[in-house]
Amino acid sequence: MLKLCLGSLGVWTPPYFSISSKTSEVMWDHLKKVYNQSDAARMFHLEFQVGELSQGNMSIQEFYSNFENLWAECTDIVYANVPPEGLIVVHKVHEISKRGQFLMKLKGEFEAIRSNLMTRDPVPLLDICVGELLRKKNGSLHWLSWSRKLKILLQYQFIRCSREV
User: Are 129 and 101 within one domain?
Assistant: First the structure.
């Protein structure tokens, strides 16, 4: 019956499976071996996506979110194959790699901040790096808005003074 059902679904069953001599467990094991994609293929695809990812036109928050999602999938695959006693070491190495990958994919305008972060001892965790990037970005926007206000104020004062003369 199992062979008939699988055949109707378009699943090829090898000739050595006879209805009476094999159990469904053997059949499922065989199907799992044939059709199950390995983690290696998924990991290759994820690593390719991480390699291709760059900040581009994304904000730091958008880029960080996309990066974290890809990295979390990679982490799940890597950690699943590590014995419990090795998880701490693998986690430390993985976090260092994660921070480096994220920072190197930022826009060039963040080079000074990136350099500052990477030369600290100890180098901060990625979460702290992202926080500093956001503060610097928001601080520069804040400064930019103040510099614009100052420029407008000076222009206004100049116009007012020139009218008085």
Answer: yes
Helix/strand/coil (H/E/C) assignment for every residue in 94-116: HHHHHHHHHHHCCCHHHHHHHHH
The answer to whether residues 31 and 65 belong to one domain is: no
How many domains, the chain?
2
Question: How far is 150 from 163, CA to CA, in rounded Å?
Answer: 20
pTM of the shown model: 0.61
For residues 15 and 54, membership in a common domain is answered with: no
- Residue 20's pLDDT is 45
Question: Given this model, what pLDDT does residue 49 score?
Answer: 94
User: What confidence score (pLDDT) does residue 103 get?
Assistant: 94
Q: How far apart are CA 130 and CA 99, in angstroms?
A: 10
Residue 54 has pLDDT above 90, yes or no: yes
